[in-house]
Design brief:
This protein is of the alpha+beta class and about 200 residues long. The protein is built from six helices and twelve strands.
C-alpha cells in the first residue's frame, strides 16, 4: 500500500473562516453607504455648477439731492426794524427711478435660493439596484436647467429694462454632473470594494 504523505490544512481553514466572515457581512449596508457617497458627490457637483442670482447693476445713481425753492422771511433786527432775508430751500435726498426699482424688488436680496434648494432623497432599493435621487423643488429650477423662451421687448419692472433675447440657454447643472459621475462611479466603487474586501482578506 502506498502512503499519502503529510498535508497542512491551516491556510485552507483560515480561508474558510474568512469566507464565513464575508458571508456574515451585511452587503446591503455596504451598498447603501456606497450609494450615499455617490449621492453626496453628485450633490456637491450640482451645487458647484448652480448659478447664484445677482441683483442687477444700474447705470444711473440710486439717489439724487433735491433742493427746495429759495424763499424770503421777515425778521426783526436789533434796532427793531423789520427786514426781509433770503433763505435757501431745504435739501432732500430722493430716490431716482433706478433707486426705486432697487428698493422695491431687490432690497435684502442675497441670492443662492436655487443652489440651497438641492437635496438628496433617501436611497431606494429596487431589486438589485439602488436608486439615488437628487432634486430641486424650486419652481424655476427646470427653466434654469434646460433653458426657456421669453418674449423679446417685454418690459420687466424688476430689471428696469426690456428683454432682448427670445431664448435663454440652460445651464444643465444636473445633466452635466450626472454624466461626469457616471464616468467616475465605477472607479469609486471599485476602490471602495477593494478596501472592503481588504479588511476580510
Amino acid at each position: 500500500m502506498s502512503r499519502w504523505g503529510k498535508c497542512d490544512f491551516k491556510q485552507l481553514e483560515q480561508l474558510n473562516k474568512r469566507l464565513e466572515q464575508l458571508s456574515s457581512v451585511d452587503f446591503d449596508a455596504f451598498c447603501r453607504q456606497a450609494a450615499n457617497e455617490i449621492a453626496a458627490r453628485l450633490l456637491a457637483k450640482v451645487k458647484k455648477r448652480t448659478p447664484v442670482g445677482v441683483a442687477p447693476k444700474f447705470d444711473e445713481p440710486l439717489t439724487t439731492k433735491v433742493r427746495g425753492e429759495n424763499y424770503m422771511t421777515q425778521i426783526t433786527n436789533k434796532n427793531g426794524e423789520k427786514v426781509f432775508r433770503k433763505r435757501k430751500g431745504k435739501s432732500y435726498t430722493m430716490l431716482t427711478r433706478s433707486g426705486a426699482i432697487r428698493e422695491k424688488y431687490w432690497s435684502g436680496y442675497t441670492g443662492g435660493t436655487l443652489r440651497d434648494a438641492w437635496t438628496i432623497l433617501p436611497i431606494e432599493k429596487h431589486g438589485d439596484e439602488y436608486l439615488v435621487t437628487v432634486v430641486n423643488n424650486t419652481e424655476y429650477a427646470s427653466y434654469v436647467e434646460y433653458g426657456h423662451r421669453q418674449t423679446p421687448g417685454r418690459y420687466v419692472p424688476a430689471l428696469g429694462k426690456r428683454l432682448k433675447a427670445s431664448w435663454v440657454k440652460g445651464r444643465f447643472m444636473l445633466t452635466i454632473s450626472t454624466q461626469e459621475l457616471e464616468v467616475q462611479a465605477p472607479a469609486l466603487l471599485e476602490k471602495k470594494l477593494y478596501l472592503f474586501l481588504k479588511e476580510v482578506f
